[in-house]
Design goal:
This protein is about 70% helix and about 0% strand. By secondary structure, it is mainly alpha-helical. It has one domain (about 20-170). Helix 2 (about 25-50) crosses helix 4 (about 80-105), helix 2 (about 25-50) runs antiparallel to helix 8 (about 160-170) and helix 5 runs antiparallel to helix 7. The longest helix is centred in the N-terminal third of the chain and has 28 residues, at about 25-50. The N and C termini lie close together (about 10 Å).
Length: about 170
Amino acid sequence: MIEVMHNEEGDINLIEMWLKIDPTRWIAGAMGGLTAGWIAMAVAMIFSAAAGLELYFPIKAVAAALLGSSATESGMHIGAILTGAIGHSILAAVLGVAYAHFSVKNHLSVLLGTGFVWGTFSWVFIFCLFSQSFQGWNALALHRGAGLALNLVFGFSLATVAVFDKMLRKN
């Protein structure tokens, strides 16, 4: 069980909590991030198919940041699909580790609230701002509303960190 630190007045000491080194929680975060990332990717693939695009378009769109907009050309381009899948997995795992580190508690209400904030943060800073600096991604002109929905799916799905944390801490 994760210990919550309190100061003299009984308030939660966030600084002490966030400075705690907890590799088990970080591993749970990476696993939760991968799970949440691929749940969000599955939803993105459903959105893509519903919009009449290729099923693998969302994975190729991730690759467009590195390979340029040609990564999203129609057809089974294994290089673009692998690049997108690997890039997506790395980003999801890193965000999962950060989420797990800062969310500390495994209560569903805390995780879902933090997931909402994390999904919104990811949408604003990664989808809307940072990703636009990649010419290939920017050329895709992806719908911001769909991006928000997918980032919220990712954020809420990060609650799976609790499952992995509990699983890893069983002795």
